[in-house]
Amino acid sequence: MKPTTTSESWQAFPCGPRWPLWLRICLALPLTIALANTVACTKGTSADASAAPKSESTAATPASPEAAPADSAPLPHIDSKRAFQYTREVTAFGPRYMGSENHKKLERYILDHLKGDQVEDDAFTADTVEGKFPVRNIIAKFPGKKDGIVVILGHYDTNYPLRNTGYVGANDGGSSTAILLEYANQLRGNKRDGYSVWLVWTDGEEAVKTWSDTDSLYGTRHLAEKWEKDGTLKKIKALMVMDMIGDADLDINRTTNGTAWLLDLIYAAAERGGYQSHFYATEGAIEDDHVPFVKRGVPSADVIDLDYGYNNVFHHSPQDTMDKLSPKSLEIVGDTILETIHMLDQR
Ligand SMILES: [Zn+2]
């Protein structure tokens, strides 16, 4: 199964970064309807897939002056080969949908890579239209000296409706699991000078039948509610979701239902690495793991490339396999987000 979006509906709207915002919103409305029946983990409710060239001159959002780095420290750098190897290993488990044996194996794999770290579970049972499933968000905490928390999330479950199709979710589920494991490698060690960083491998991001407010985001809806009750939400300075970030043809959307200043800060970090051509050539609202937190006022951003293959054909398709991915893309996103954390620490 794959999104029902037709090539026509993506191409019909000549709206790009050059167009005024109000016009882009107007043009996006019919697309919202066109996408309403899409079975998607990360359902695009509007998007702009016009053929805007990826260049600095046409990028949607220039960095704001206050987003400039406060110092000239060397840019952080992930080990992209290792991150890519994690993606390969995670994908090799096969389908990892909620309730499956492979899902349990992947939980153990993640925990094995977090030995010695401060790890917590947010585990519960989700009552869905396909029955009850155990859901387990895995949280690794890396303390900092500054008061406040930066949260990075990425889902590790794979699409449930495609469970019998050979679907392995290399990009959608695999890349997000892997980049978080690599972030853990980068954060482990001495107490950070900046904010505490919490990594969350989220579960139950995918719908079990048809994406809706009640059939999607099982893990993060639970976690956001829990963190609201225990006061954690108030301590979160920024929250960033990683999803589908391994596409060799990397084109991160500006996800407009996020927090503008945080989206701008991510862009400024990308500029520091010279990666801005991979950011924000397209924009639109996307439903993903950031939504339960946005609804509660947490500064949030979704870092996602929902343009996976021509007309997004690899998304939720058995063609979502390792050969479509590139270590360079993991590096671009990995370095950019680590730099964003560094810039948040300076604020
Ligand atoms: Zn998905």
Q: How does this model look, in words?
A:
By secondary structure, this protein is α/β, with parallel strands linked by helices. The protein has one domain (7-346): Aminopeptidase. Helix content is 32%, strand content 21%. It contains 9 helices and 10 strands. Strand 4, helix 5 (170-187) and strand 5 form a beta-alpha-beta unit. Bound molecules: zinc ion.
SSE inventory with pairings:
Layout lengths: L6 H5 L9 H14 L8 E2 L35 H13 L8 H12 L5 E11 L2 E12 L1 E12 L14 H18 L4 E11 L15 H12 L6 E8 L8 E4 L4 H13 L6 E6 L1 E2 L3 H4 L5 E5 L22 H20 L1
Parallel strand pairs: 4-5, 4-6, 6-10, 7-8
Antiparallel strand pairs: 1-9, 2-3, 3-5
The protein binds zinc ion.
Bound molecules: zinc ion
Overall strand count? 10
Largest sheet geometry: 6 strands, mixed
- What's the Cα radius of gyration? 19 Å
What is the N-to-C order of secondary-structure elements (H for helix, E for strand)?
HHEHHEEEHEHEEHEEHEH
CATH architecture: 3-Layer(aba) Sandwich
Strand order of the largest sheet: 2-3-5-4-6-10
How far apart lie the N and C ends? 44 Å
List low-confidence stretches: 1-41, 45-69
What structural category characterises the helix and strand content? Answer: alpha/beta
Q: How many domains make up the 3D coordinates?
A: 1
Helix content: 25-40%
CATH fold field value? Aminopeptidase
Gross morphology: globular
Name the average pLDDT.
85
Strand fraction: 15-25%
